[in-house]
């Protein structure tokens, strides 16, 4: 079965990629498998200056999920370009760079630097990190701000721009339409949901940041619902993510309306999860009677549309 | 290429209050030569527990690795259900252990507290085998929590302290330091942060400490387990416990 996927600016061998922040800059996972197997590599968020991030504890486990409040720790865009990205050039796998910032200017500066870097094939605008006071979430909850940011970055970069949406909003469709109109080439969804865990002994929040972003299988139904809603109203492709642990989950994301799928938290439990899913995917699709990826994408609602048009005639 | 692998449970028994000794075997035991490294242990089947748990290597003999763990939450409680013949998915050994290869004919002090005691046992064995004299100080909360007293006794002088005085010396590990035969050339310590702080404040000789932080990936990719570099001019400014540690020279990381 042909697993290749064409997205704006990207030709993927298969629809599977690691999610930003769960894969570092690829080096560690390259000790487990050949990164050429991946559809794409999404690197950890880059900001203009180096960021230390939050105090520890930065992670907690929840039922079928986890909370994280890393706080966008990264060495800064210049170091990422000089010290991290060259390592990925040896792989025949497109790199998507995740961009974060506190101001429109910071996003523009980081985006334009990354755009001039050979080996970066697309940008993912992180307007949805819930773990820093100024780090994108204000852009992720206000459709006007998100559109302004998208437009500015598009102007400053010649690379395709995927905007990563936050689920922490009351109207995800409006957000999606707003950034699409501003020129986004695609969407990534979803980022983590804001959550909290308490320390029973001390009685206070367990994470030093108090709140953290919930990820893992626990959030999959939220991701599926949001992709189902958004894919029906936009004309740009969606990279889906949120709790993927197996090839069947990938199928569900495709059916909901995603064109490609990212795997985050599951990498922590099983560092080989991405190549394992890629290997299982053709068999899983055919087990459910599908012969191609295309016929799956958005089938959850296209199918219903077809049926109702049949019943009308 | 690395990969997580199933290990077979040979034994999983209670050795002190809320404390279990787990013996595992598998092909990766042959790589477990460095004391202070840890195993990143998967909990349960399915996806209820998305994170692995870091547990130190307590001892390695022939094809068997021993791990000692204390029940502190859901993951360690679930581990107690494992029976002989069951398998456990293990990633590791991971991290950098205690540097020990170059020490010979020295007097070395080991200071451990609670679940920081386990990695010191494998270290003590290695150090003694290389002709060093080892003195060990172990701190526990109370008498029922004490474990591996006999095992350590066979390796040199041993002092045990308990917080409530129900066993050994009452008080902190640092309270017995003046009774240790001098001179001491080097020390290694592992345990709760306040204890490590007290130990490093007390001693002026060179030392290494093993730190604990909550982990995500356990391989250096997620930035969950970082601690601040002590040198404010340090280029990175941080260290990852899972990848750069868990063992550090005492002056390298801020406590
Ligand atoms: C390098 C290293 C070596 C360790 N070696 C040992 C050992 O030999 N024996 C032993 O009993 N314990 C050891 N610990 C501590 C052990 O990892 C925790 O007690 C254990 O993860 C708790 O899991 P839980 O599910 O029972 O607790 P929960 O509180 O339910 O765990 C929730 C989450 O928090 C993490 N967590 C909770 N407490 C700690 C802690 N103190 N350190 C790190 N993560 C924590 C868990 O891993 C899990 O991700 C070590 C920790 C580190 C970092
Ligand atoms: C530890 C951790 C760090 C993350 N860091 C980033 C980040 O830097 N940028 C970003 O856009 N998303 C980040 N995310 C969000 C993930 O990319 C993903 O959107 C989310 O975790 C949902 O997918 P999952 O359930 O498969 O993990 C992070 C998630 C985790 C768990
Ligand atoms: S646990 Fe992920 S970097 Fe250390």
From TrEMBL, chain A:
Q: Which reaction does it catalyse?
A: (S)-dihydroorotate + NAD(+) = orotate + NADH + H(+); (S)-dihydroorotate + A = orotate + AH2
Coiled coil spans: none
Note the Gene3D superfamilies from the entry: Aldolase class I (3.20.20.70)
Q: Residues that bind FMN, according to the entry?
A: 20, 44-45, 98, 126, 164, 190, 216, 242-243, 264-265
Q: Which residues bind substrate?
A: 44, 68-72, 126, 191-192
Main location group? cytoplasm
Q: Which cofactor does it need?
A: FMN
**Any one cellular-component term (Gene Ontology):** cytoplasm
Give any single GO term for biological process: 'de novo' UMP biosynthetic process
Positions annotated as active site in the UniProt record: 129 (nucleophile)
Q: Which Gene Ontology MF annotations are present?
A: dihydroorotate dehydrogenase (NAD+) activity
Q: How is the cofactor bound?
A: Binds 1 FMN per subunit.
Q: According to the lineage, what is the superkingdom? A: Bacteria
The subunit structure is: Heterotetramer of 2 PyrK and 2 PyrD type B subunits.
Question: Which family, according to the similarity comment?
Answer: Belongs to the dihydroorotate dehydrogenase family. Type 1 subfamily.
Q: What is this protein called?
A: Dihydroorotate dehydrogenase
Tell me what organism the protein belongs to: Pontibacillus marinus BH030004 = DSM 16465
Q: Which gene encodes it?
A: pyrD
UniProtKB/TrEMBL annotation, chain B:
Give residues annotated as binding [2Fe-2S] cluster. Answer: 217, 222, 225, 242
Domain FAD-binding FR-type stretches? 2-100
Which residues does FAD bind? 53-56, 75-76
Entry's InterPro entries? Cyt_c3_hydrogenase_gsu (IPR012165), Dihydroorotate_DH_ele_sf (IPR037117), Dihydroorotate_DH_Fe-S-bd (IPR019480), Dihydroorotate_DHASE_ETsu (IPR023455), FAD-bd_FR_type (IPR017927), FNR_nucleotide-bd (IPR039261), OxRdtase_FAD/NAD-bd (IPR001433), PyrK_electron_transfer (IPR050353)
Q: Name one GO molecular function term.
A: electron transfer activity
Alphabetical UniProt keywords: 2Fe-2S, Electron transport, FAD, Flavoprotein, Iron, Iron-sulfur, Metal-binding, Pyrimidine biosynthesis, Transport
**BP terms from Gene Ontology:** 'de novo' UMP biosynthetic process
Pfam families named in the record: DHODB_Fe-S_bind, NAD_binding_1
List the cofactors: [2Fe-2S] cluster; FAD
What does it do?
A: Responsible for channeling the electrons from the oxidation of dihydroorotate from the FMN redox center in the PyrD type B subunit to the ultimate electron acceptor NAD(+).
HAMAP family from the entry?
DHODB_Fe_S_bind
State the similarity comment.
Answer: Belongs to the PyrK family.
Cite the record's note on assembly: Heterotetramer of 2 PyrK and 2 PyrD type B subunits.
The protein, known as: Dihydroorotate dehydrogenase B (NAD(+)), electron transfer subunit
Origin species, per record, is Pontibacillus marinus BH030004 = DSM 16465
What is the taxonomic lineage of the source species?
Bacteria, Bacillati, Bacillota, Bacilli, Bacillales
What gene is behind this protein?
Answer: pyrK
